[in-house]
Amino acid sequence: MDVPEDRIKPAYDGAAGSATSREYEGEHMAQRRVTLADVARHAGLSTTAASWVLNEREDARLSEDARRRVLAAAQELGYRPNAAARSLRIRKTATIALISDTVATTRFAGGMIRGALSVARDREHVLLIAETQGDPELERHAIDAMLHRQVDGVVYAAMYSRRLTVPQRLLDTRTVLLNATSAHGLPAVLPAEEDAGYAVAAALLGQGHRRIAVLGRIESIERSPRRSLAAGLRMRGIRRALADRGLRLAVSEHTRDWEARDGHAGMTSLLERGSIPSAVICMNDRLAFGAYQAAADAGKAIPDDISIVSFDDDPIAEWLRPGLTTAALPHEEMGRLAVELLLDETAEPGTRWVPMPLRERGSIGQPAT
Amino acid sequence: MDVPEDRIKPAYDGAAGSATSREYEGEHMAQRRVTLADVARHAGLSTTAASWVLNEREDARLSEDARRRVLAAAQELGYRPNAAARSLRIRKTATIALISDTVATTRFAGGMIRGALSVARDREHVLLIAETQGDPELERHAIDAMLHRQVDGVVYAAMYSRRLTVPQRLLDTRTVLLNATSAHGLPAVLPAEEDAGYAVAAALLGQGHRRIAVLGRIESIERSPRRSLAAGLRMRGIRRALADRGLRLAVSEHTRDWEARDGHAGMTSLLERGSIPSAVICMNDRLAFGAYQAAADAGKAIPDDISIVSFDDDPIAEWLRPGLTTAALPHEEMGRLAVELLLDETAEPGTRWVPMPLRERGSIGQPAT
DNA sequence: ATCCTGTGATTAATCCTTTAAGCAAGGTCG
DNA sequence: CGACCTTGCTTAAAGGATTAATCACAGGAT
């Protein structure tokens, strides 16, 4: 391992690798890592004493002087505990696993990871990640790898919220579901989709809209919770908001899929109908994006001719002109909460619904008369 | 830190949690994990023998019968090695750290992680991740946490490619830079931005374009490699392609930042000039997105009135109409390569440039006459 | 009968921490 | 004065794997 000659010892760095102050012990060996025993020897105490000091055990009775000597020695030698030895002994690793189906294909994954990471960091834990890509074989492999390493807990995450079956082996470990539910009675974290549906519709109603359309893959909605929990819940919230005012959906425009092109097709067909709704609720931002395009093609102005609202808060929502008003998936908060639940031994089973804030931008206006 | 010949993946790894067949040993204690000693006892052999069998050591001379007994015992008891104990002894953890500045804010991060994950998995390693958010304090913390855990290596990643200073402590560990370079002579992985610049310009030239504009934060380009390496390199490639045909850039439109709104402003100003270029190279997809909007506002059709090319291959590139032709950042491949380099003991320092494939969609046409 | 060699195993040391148990000296209490 | 507690430490035993060193035995050569 070659080291450049311009090595400068950073001030904050206790000593790591700086052999300057280290005593040579006989042979001139390749830098052995500093162990607790080294620290103890340096401080003129037993390893037990050193361990007590460094772990700040209050029940241990040690002189203030001894305490200082140990601390000084550790500092000087640049001691860092060997995590493997420690875990072996105490049977904890301060490591948690985040196993998800997909991390890369959705742009939201990052938010969950970041939230999880931040809590993990605050609680002195680290995060191991693995991806199953929905493949049972890979999943088995990932779970194996994690359990071998005796992680203290597992966050089992789905990138699209849905109901899933938790592998048996995870049930023996502390597990929290992220963006998913199951029948196993585990703590779970989900976005408050139904409330968001209600809020989105309410925002429209509040502006005076009465002819409201929904654009999405309706066929699957309220049917297959294993594919997407979100769609059904959003829909239910929307219906409830309308019902509270004695209204019903004016139109449900069914799309084949959830992509921009589907939104384009759907919106085009909506605009070709006899009476155009004054507002359209798109079931996600990609559809909304396509809807924007279709509106432009048809010479309709947003929000003057037609209002649009949506769900997710994809980065493009901000780029669109006008900005897209949308209920944000609170991914970061969800990731955070999942790890908190995992680390909280007393957390009870059951689902936590994380609010989806409505990001108000310019796509909702008053209905054209 | 030399370690004997690389261990080979144990083949016994099947058993899973089939505790069903586990024998109770005396007390009815809370299920103790099965250890190697248990397996050995079950097979009527020493732990040494069991270890040899399970690790498939060829130099060990064991009878075929003993081998089978160990394997059977491991299988039956559902043995899985204790990673902590193993790491403690062999001084390897089969764990690699991915430390990045940001994982969540860019939608590309996922690709890198996924690539890293996939080769880590193939090589029987797991991935620890940490995020510094550019904060030196958090960075120190993250590096500490990783080194405590004696990771076998660190992938130090930047989410926007640039030149950075590697913390001293990392230089004592095996480190590979991902999407970054440094002056430390470490192996590094970067996208082949200059080639991409060349390819993008060449694609335009090939269609007959001669009046070509560039849209981007030109001020920073070729100046501050710490902010963005990409911009300067892309620019150089573009210039070279033009020079090869004896041409120069028709216009350089400077934007204030890299966002969609900047692209919109820049494109608008471009279109207001006296002689409009026949093609515009946007320095990234967000700018291109804004440029699309501006073109639409100005009543210019893409690609009939004006062609647009770009860099990155953001998901929106596909959603736009027409699809945006753009040079893709090969994030997944980069992540993959970084881990490969990390795990390849013999990998030499120096930068690996990963090709950026040009995704041809519909935004390049022939120049209007 | 003795020495040597190859085979098929075992014993014991080691990796580094944590922690239960014990010990020596000095002070307190009855 | 002896029993007993505190204080401030130390010793030694885990914890579960890998591995250097050793051993018992059978068979062949001398």
Can you walk me through this structure?
With 369 residues, chain A is α/β, with parallel strands linked by helices. Chain A has 3 domains: 19-81, 434 Repressor (Amino-terminal Domain) (Orthogonal Bundle), CATH 1.10.260; 91-191 and 332-354, Rossmann fold; 193-329, Rossmann fold (3-Layer(aba) Sandwich). Chain A is 38% helix and 18% strand. The first copy, chain A, contains 13 helices and 12 strands. Chain A has helices spanning 36-43, 47-54, 64-77, 83-90, 109-122, 136-148, 168-171, 193-206, 229-244, 260-272, 285-297, 316-319, 331-343, and strands at residues 95-100, 126-131, 153-163, 175-181, 187-191, 212-216, 251-254, 279-282, 307-312, 325-328, 350-354, 358-359. In chain A, the strands form 2 sheets. The first copy, chain A, has a 6-stranded parallel β-sheet with strand order 2-1-3-4-5-11, with helices on both faces. In chain A, β9 (307-312), α12 (316-319) and β10 form a beta-alpha-beta unit. Chain B binds a DNA duplex (30 and 30 nucleotides) through α2 and α4.
Features:
homodimer, 369 residues, alpha/beta, 434 Repressor (Amino-terminal Domain), Rossmann fold, 6-stranded parallel beta sheet, 6-stranded mixed beta sheet, 13 helices, 12 strands, 18% strand, disordered N terminus, DNA-binding
Q: Summarize this, please?
A:
In chain A, 38% of the residues lie in helices and 18% in strands. Chain A has helices at 36-43, 47-54, 64-77, 83-90, 109-122, 136-148, 168-171, 193-206, 229-244, 260-272, 285-297, 316-319, 331-343, and strands at residues 95-100, 126-131, 153-163, 175-181, 187-191, 212-216, 251-254, 279-282, 307-312, 325-328, 350-354, 358-359.
